[in-house]
Write a structure and sequence with these properties.
two-stranded antiparallel sheet; 2 strands; mainly alpha
Length: about 130
Amino acid sequence: MRRIRVSLRNISLLTIGSAYPRLGVADICVVRAGNSVFIPGSSIKGVLRTSANRASRRMNFTSCGEVRPDRIAEAHRKMGRRCDVCDLFGFPGSPPDSSSKVIVGDMKPRWDVRTIVIGRTAIDPRKG
């Protein structure tokens, strides 16, 4: 196993979500453990996977171009094989064949962070 340590710095507002929002709050919420804020490893892994999908052709790798689990199997069927991106990052199915080769841990800030609440409400113009 190879371990890589990274440091991230946001250059604009950083919005962190979670698959497990608390009831009664916005669906995009800061993820906390006690008083500490962190970025879930799954969020970072998702960004890496999306970036790999975009860069794959330039690097001579295959990509099904899908990130939604319900579309990946169909894309692989059309390709006639599993793509390189899914082979690295995993895909829906029975382990170990479908398991990810990439494990990403949660990221914790080095310094104190300030959090704000952002409202993201949209009104459908057709329905008012």
